[in-house]
Automatic annotation (TrEMBL):
One of its GO terms (molecular function) is oxidoreductase activity. Signal peptide: none annotated. InterPro entries: Gfo/Idh/MocA-like_OxRdtase_C, Gfo/Idh/MocA-like_OxRdtase_N, Gfo/Idh/MocA_oxidrdct_glycsds, NAD(P)-bd_dom_sf, TAT_signal. Keywords: Oxidoreductase. Residues 41-167 form the Gfo/Idh/MocA-like oxidoreductase N-terminal domain. It comes from the Bacteria. It comes from Sphingomonas gei. Residues 180-376 form the Gfo/Idh/MocA-like oxidoreductase C-terminal domain. This is Gfo/Idh/MocA family oxidoreductase.
Amino acid sequence: MDRPEGPAVGRRDVIGGLAAGTALAAALDAGPALAADKRKRYVAVGVGSRNRMYQQALWGPHKAHGELVAACDTNPGRLDYVAQQASKAGARPPKPYLAVDFDKMLREQKPDAVIVTTPDAFHNDYIIRALDAGVDVITEKPMTTTAEKAQLILDAVKRSGRHIRVTFNYRYSPFRSQVKELLMSGVIGDVLSVDFHWLLNTVHGADYFRRWHSNKAISGGLMVHKATHHFDLVNWWLSDMPVSVNATGKREFYTPEMARRFGLQGPHQRCHTCPEKDKCTFFLDLAADPGLKALYLDAEKYDGYFRDQCVWRPEISIEDTMNVIVGYAGGTTLSYSLNAFNAWEGYTVAFNGTKGRLEHSVVEQGATAGAINERDEDRIKTRIIPMRGEAQDIKPDTGAGSHGGGDAVMLADIFDPNAPKDPLMRAADERGGAASCLIGIAADKCFETGQPVRIESLVTGLDWPTLPKMPGHKDRVPMPMRLQHG
Ligand SMILES: NC(=O)c1ccc[n+]([C@@H]2O[C@H](COP(=O)([O-])OP(=O)(O)OC[C@H]3O[C@@H](n4cnc5c(N)ncnc54)[C@H](O)[C@@H]3O)[C@@H](O)[C@H]2O)c1
């Protein structure tokens, strides 16, 4: 039987072999109606907030390309919720499996790929079990949270011959892809250093201190959970690999002391039962938002997980203020900062090249949490400043939808077998996944020890990803224009 083939899980796609055969076998097992179904079979593990993007893709624009045949989670309430959402979308509800039955799900469903969207520290377990069962993986970022787990994943890919796709959606935002194109064009020459500063505000940024993300053992801290996006962007923008990391980090805002400085008695357990909810403007009302209520408040009775823990709790183990220096194999240095209590959310990045400077900035959320696409012309700026000469403002490429339009482009790249070949090579595998999370893991080690960390000391066998060619650090560059005096 012919199966639609293509770059469904990236450029090193090997799904067409064993996995295609197993999907066909499953379809035949399921009877004549399914045997005629040529769509790829996907299963998901961890069906909380982020998984909805994949569900909506497979129930909407990509329903002709794939089906979500099963969903797996520790929380039966969220499994029920997925089934309800599928029915509302007119799709067949995915078969529910509790997390203890993950391997059974693989055996019974014989999927082409597993979509991993659990909290970060659990990715490795499902990734490795899927690979060893001969199934490809699509995993959310960060690929994993520790060097030991990264090593286990790298080994499992080599052992199994299967494929991992790490869904770095930030690469796909049209204006960030445009930055890559500008850098590839050589307009600023080769890049000697990068200054990159990411700001999280007290709406979205504060949320990391309420959820599982506030526990470093589960999220790896913001250096891993959040900055993995940013480190990946730099690795990809430069087509380079990190070699050394130095960093400092602290938590000085989301603290019990800060609660008292704001006039509260101190931290409490959670917003829902908070005695000071009227005074605290960081209060989150789960009951007031139908989505949050259904996904988390109503599902608490199954696992006791509170989505609205107090942001001032003493037991929070992640930093809110982080500064990092990264050295790259090609010689470029990155100066990066992340802090989580800012007046607006977004970033500024500048590439200092041998022919000039590229400046790029994005306001993702203003102080009042506006949407990124409301006024792109004001929110997204890209500028080329030659070493000598007139600066040029570049009209940013933009798109519609979440993450600046990046999610839709990435989903097409993942699910659509007819997606065009990507000259920017935005599909990342375990090599890109590891390169990015290892910078964050190294930064966390620096926080603990005060010592720099070499990436090669963390894992072995990390190969270079295949990435677009960039202007070389030894290429000839034109002498800049003569300065006019007098
Ligand atoms: N690329 C992006 O822009 C982006 C955005 C948001 C989240 N994410 C990533 O998506 C993943 C999920 O984040 P989220 O915001 O959806 O979190 P979430 O808390 O909303 O959902 C996590 C789900 O996993 C389930 N779960 C917890 N432990 C599990 C286990 N051991 N086995 C199976 N299921 C388990 C939970 O019950 C929940 O349903 C994370 O890795 C996060 O980093 C990526």
